[in-house]
Amino acid sequence: MTRRPHQWVLVVFYSLLLWFASLGQIKLVELSIDLRMPLIAPFLVMAMASFGVMIPSAPGFIGTFHLSVQYAYLFYGIGKEEGLSAAILWHASFFFPTLILGLLSFLLLHVSPSALVSRAKKPQD
After folding, report:
1. For 49-96, how does the pLDDT look when each residue is reduced to its tens digit (9 = 90+)?
2. What distance separates the 2 farthest-apart alpha carbons in the chain?
3. Which residues contact 23 (CB under 8 A, 6 or more apart)?
4. Whether the Cβ atoms of residue 48 and residue 108 lie closer than 8 Å to each other
5. Cα–Cα distance measured from residue 117 to residue 105, given in angstroms and rounded to the nearest whole number
6. Which label site among 67, 95, 109, 118 has the fewest CB atoms less than 10 Å from its CB?
7. Helix segments in 55-79, DSSP class H
8. CB–CB of 53/74 below 8 Å?
9. pTM of the shown model
């Protein structure tokens, strides 16, 4: 552990920044499909999504994530279809940018999939 308090302040700051960016993302999804939700709603949606991804499931949390977000919206009286739509849009809004940035990184850094496979097969020293 570090003994420099300013590093802890930075850790807390960046952590809060990421959490609030995710909350903003949920709110933008709600606005994009015209869901009239209270300002506190993204907090419940995020909490339910966090519990949903703790359940063992398929890769990418497909199913449990969407169901948990859907139930969070049901709590606010939003229909199943609208809640599922919001879950799919939210999932896509962080999945596809991550995928695209990862692919761009591979291209810009000139990393080939075969190089990764051969590196993974090397024994550790």
Report:
1. 999 989 887 776 678 999 999 999 999 999 999 999 999 999 999 899
2. 57
3. 42, 43, 46
4. no
5. 17
6. 109
7. 64-75
8. no
9. 0.78
